[in-house]
Amino acid sequence: MAEVDTHFYDDSQAHFNGYSTEYTQNMEVPYYTGPSQVYMNEPLDYHLYTPTIPSAFVTSSTANHFVPPSSELRQLLQERSHTIRSVPFPGSNLPEELQGYHTFTPIDNVNGSERKKFFNLNSVVYRAINSTDGVPYVLRRIENFRLMQQAAFNAIEAWSQIRHPNIVPVHEAFTTRSFNDSSLVVVYSYYANAQTLYDAHLKKSPLHNGGRATLGHSQSSVQIPQYGQSVTSPFASSQSMPQLQMGGLPERVLWSYIVQISSAIKRVHEAGLAVRTIDATKILLTGKNRVRIGSCAVWDVLTYDQHLDVVALQHDDLQHFGRLIFALCCNNPQATTNGNFQKSLEIISKTYSHDVKNIALFLISKNHPHKNISTVFEMISGRLLTELDDAFEGMDRLENEMLSELENARLVRLLCKFGFINERPEFARDARWSETGDRYIIKLFRDYVFHQIDERGNPVTNMSHVLTCLNKLDAGTEEKVMLVARDEQSCLVVSYKEIKACVDAAFSDLSRASSTMR
Ligand SMILES: Nc1ncnc2c1ncn2[C@@H]1O[C@H](COP(=O)(O)OP(=O)(O)OP(=O)(O)O)[C@@H](O)[C@H]1O
């Protein structure tokens, strides 16, 4: 890699978010009163799940760069599913239905007094279900926005064409008065339990938080800043400034982020757009070491009438990317501001490889010749293969995990057949149906599988006994099993193969009857 001159960077000009506009409309911000941030968040019912599979039986107990060990992966997915199904407390004062979305749940993780910001604009993020496909989406609402020209939404059209593994897809946008103001709402794909990079890596202590929160609600009105005008850093208060720290992210993880974010920027720049949200608070960690740039397109709508130069904005993207790398390396969002730059550079030189320092300096530099995303890729090319190898290995791991889950479908099918066959009310008085032949064997087998009791007469709820029996039944093994009548006066010795034939025959009878009824 070529050396990058540190003098290209001008620390005095830096501000936390250099996103700036010529949008001149004054925006009155009334106090936002709802919804209450109370969730019905009960702990997961772990007794409903099978216990963590012992490592000897799982595909892998070791972590891949992108895929955690099997047991952790399952827990992670269960937690995501739990989050998706959680509902807000009734009376949250949110619209019941809006533009085809329902069940609004705020996902900003704030206490009641803290105002949320989209940079310096008041913003709230909700999860809501789309009525057409039943899938949850994220709706980012910018408060007090008045759409002056419909053409401002052209950017949404362009962004909705962009599909990239490191970009949160943009779906649609609309304006609404349903929140008792005039709001802009942009709809994105939802990633349950996603964390911002800020929350994951930079928010280390209540001290760090303090500066951010106080600044948020000290403002009574919001103005979209002029282009070239500095946006006040949420970390401006020196009291709340976190300390620069040696060694933020591990270097492997840092490179992974650099590669993924570079790839996302490349796709956006090639589409003739600029990202404009390269910021720790807007990049989401959606899985193990998987990042996605979120909140895209909002700035394009907000600043539509400024006719900004896209090349300059793309240049800003790279500079913000540089600042992000500095922040992650030094564990401090202010690593390049407030006169911290030289100290941060020292930390990076001591803690990370020469290549990290070089790419960070290249990105943050101003007026560097050939500064564009293609040059970034030339500089990081040596890291791409590691990323690719880890991604392929992760894919293999997931395929193997899925293979073991395929078994579940077999067992569920079998259980459904049992459900159809056993104790049908229309045959309740027909002893020939349930007390003779095939059906009687199935009934006794069901008792054998599910209704065992111990020597004290207590029910046995042993899942592994159930799974073992069902697997043998599905395979139709020659192994024999003794089925005892409920009155214990008789018993039958039959093989799983014979029971399987009985289940198939009984189910065929039912299916035939149901098709002749139609
Ligand atoms: N597409 C998404 N899927 C899932 N969660 C999301 C998505 N977009 C945002 N979030 C979550 O919503 C929450 C609020 O997002 P927001 O962008 O307001 O972050 P923030 O950290 O509060 O930043 P800011 O300081 O700008 O308010 C964050 O916890 C974030 O993880």
CATH class of the largest domain: Mainly Alpha
Range of helix content? 40-55%
Envelope shape: elongated
Low-confidence stretches: 1-40, 207-241
What value does the average pLDDT take? 81
Count up the domains.
2
How would you sum up the major sheet? 7 strands, antiparallel
So, CATH architecture of the largest domain? Answer: Orthogonal Bundle
Number of helices: 14
Radius of gyration: 30 Å
Structural class, judged by helices and strands?
Answer: alpha+beta
The CATH fourth-level homologous superfamily of the largest domain: Transferase(Phosphotransferase) domain 1
The bound ligands are: adenosine-5'-triphosphate
Q: Indicate the proportion of strand residues.
A: 5-15%
Provide the succession of SSEs.
Answer: EHEEEEEHEEEHHEHEEHHHHHHHHEEH
Question: What's the total number of strands?
Answer: 14
Q: Cα distance, first to last residue?
A: 73 Å
The CATH topology of the largest domain is what? Transferase(Phosphotransferase), domain 1
Give an account of the 3D structure.
It is a single chain. The chain has 518 residues and is α+β, with helices and mostly antiparallel strands. It has two domains: 364 residues, Orthogonal Bundle (Transferase(Phosphotransferase), domain 1); 96 residues, Orthogonal Bundle (Helix Hairpins), CATH 1.10.287. Helices cover 41% and strands 13% of the residues. It contains 14 helices and 14 strands. The strands form four sheets. Strands 2, 3, 4, 5, 6, 7 and 8 form a seven-stranded antiparallel β-sheet that branches. A three-stranded antiparallel β-sheet has the order 9-11-12. β2 and β3 form a beta hairpin. α13 crosses α14. It is elongated and about 90 Å long. The N terminus is likely disordered. The site of adenosine-5'-triphosphate has 23 residues, from β4, β5, β8 and β9. Keywords: ATP-binding, Coiled coil, Cytoplasm, mRNA processing, Nucleotide-binding. Homodimer. Forms a heterotrimer with a catalytic subunit PAN2 to form the poly(A)-nuclease (PAN) deadenylation complex. Interacts (via PAM-2 motif) with poly(A)-binding protein PAB1 (via PABC domain), conferring substrate specificity of the enzyme complex. Belongs to the protein kinase superfamily. PAN3 family. GO terms for molecular function: ATP binding; poly(A) binding; protein kinase activity. It holds the Pfam family Pan3_CK.
